[in-house]
Design brief:
Layout (H helix, E strand, L loop, with lengths): L2 E4 L2 E8 L2 E5 H5 L7 H9 L2 H14 L5 H10 L9 H8 L4 E4 L5 E5 H11 L1 H37 L15 H5 L5 H10 L3 H7 L13 H19 L4 H18 L5 H8 L4
Antiparallel strand pairs: 1-2, 2-3, 3-5, 4-5
């Protein structure tokens, strides 16, 4: 679980369904090290907080229960009103807050909500929190980009070393296939590499989900990526569709002869890396 340091306080980040949740318990420690639960409950019982949470859920959560939300909103601000994160989640079906137990236990909130809570704690803390959170996201993007470049470099190296595997090499298109006008540029690439349009593939494979490219192997996907760039260049040069199809088919045959699969490229597909 990643952490960021904000004004000398460690703040944990939890990822769920590709969304970042920030630990409110850690943020509350900036105000009071020992009474974090009490601070969060105090924030939750505010009418402004309830309305903010309710609107956020209505915008982001189709399973949110508006009737239960209205009940909390009517009680918010009363001296007798008490609300915990767990109660809010269970009663309304909320997804913006998460109550975790165990080693990394505490109350977590979607970043939108966490920033609002941080503002209630301290405007200064909120600004530093946003800054450090953005720094973390920037580092993650850099790392992802480096991994992609590293893996593509290894794949391209295999172009010069892998042996030819005949059943992966596209066939040359016939004159009849070349003369057909295709509905989309995507089908130009499909014909050049796979020898079939997306529609024809679906008709021949009614029991399979997705499309033809979902069933392509790593070598075919690399070839397809290269062909997309080349096709864009050929379009800018004003080359006709039929001429482009011939050129792309020739390129597909050439590259697939080089991008053959003797086990090395397949390892990349299965392991995410090539040793």
């Amino acid at each position: 679980m990643p952490k960021i340091n904000v004004l000398n306080k460690d703040v944990s980040i939890y990822v769920q369904n590709n969304e970042d949740y920030i630990c409110l318990t850690d943020i509350a420690r900036y105000k009071d090290q020992e009474r974090t639960d009490y601070i969060i409950q105090n924030w939750l019982r505010n009418r402004t907080t309830i309305e903010f949470l309710g609107i956020w859920e209505q915008l982001n959560n189709p399973g949110f229960k508006p009737i239960e939300f209205d009940g909390f909103r009517k009680q918010a601000g009363l001296n007798s009103f008490v609300l915990t994160a767990k109660q809010w989640i269970e009663k309304t079906g909320a997804i913006g807050l998460i109550s975790k137990s165990g080693r990394y236990g505490g109350t977590y909130a979607h970043r939108d909500i966490a920033f609002e809570f941080a503002s209630w704690i301290s405007v200064e803390f909120k600004l530093y929190l946003i800054k450090e959170f953005q720094r973390l996201k920037d580092e993650e993007r850099k790392q992802l980009g480096w991994d992609i470049r590293r893996n593509l470099t290894k794949i391209n190296y295999r172009i010069h070393t892998d042996a030819i595997q005949a059943n992966l090499i596209p066939v040359s298109l016939t004159k009849a296939q070349i003369n057909i006008v295709y509905a989309s540029e995507a089908d130009i690439l499909n014909m050049a590499l796979f020898g079939i349009t997306a529609k024809d593939w679906r008709e021949k494979n009614p029991d399979l989900k997705g499309n033809i490219r979902d069933y392509a192997n790593i070598s075919q996907l690399v070839c397809l990526s290269n062909m997309e760039n080349l096709n864009a260049h050929l379009i800018q040069e004003g080359i006709s569709q039929s001429e482009r199809l011939v050129k792309l088919n020739q390129i597909a045959i050439q590259q697939m002869k080089l991008l053959t699969d003797d086990g090395n490229v397949k390892k990349l597909a299965h392991k995410g890396d090539v040793k």
